[in-house]
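Annual report, structural modelling task.

Input specification for the S-adenosylmethionine complex:
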Amino acid sequence: MSEQTYLEKSLSAAVYPPLKRALGVVDTTLHRVAVDAGCGAGRDALFMIEHGYSVHAFDKSDKAIARLEEIGGRYINQTLFPKVSCFERFVYPKTALINACSSLFFCAPGLFASAWQNLTHSLLKGGVFCGHFMGPDDSWAKMGRGDLSIHAYSDILALFKDAFALAGDVGGLGR
Ligand SMILES: C[S@@+](CC[C@H](N)C(=O)[O-])C[C@H]1O[C@@H](n2cnc3c(N)ncnc32)[C@H](O)[C@@H]1O
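The model returned the following structure:
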């Protein structure tokens, strides 16, 4: 499937249920600032805007960001701030909600630690991270491509323990 076809299809896909859950548990007294990391065409970014958030949405693909700028044109520089960037370089604002649906495992393994640190340091106490990890049993992980970040469940627990030990809550990990 071409990237352009993928982007169009992604716009009509349903918003991920974990993102809906995240909106229900985030501390609503925080400033409503969210990040969509690896946003693609921005289905989830627009969903968060519709729920009252200002959304900083980034993707390494200029095609993805161009498509988001088309469909979210009316929000740009109001509540939508799109940028071509990547996980390890993006400069995060202080954030109540970080969404990384089907994206973060595309981070190169050698860059994942700095990307994760960059991401988690921006999350406000009471904020929520919502995203997918790729486990070793995933069919893509088994291809041995070498360019995907693969995490066993125990690795994920350790990531959250280290990142959020001071912030408190490591709850809500779904398998
Ligand atoms: C499967 S798509 C998911 C897109 C979107 N989150 C969604 O659910 O529709 C993965 C996205 O991650 C982006 N991506 C891959 N590697 C990235 C990186 N290192 N930094 C930022 N984005 C990246 C891709 O360009 C692609 O848009």
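Confidence is low (pLDDT under 50) at residues 166-170.
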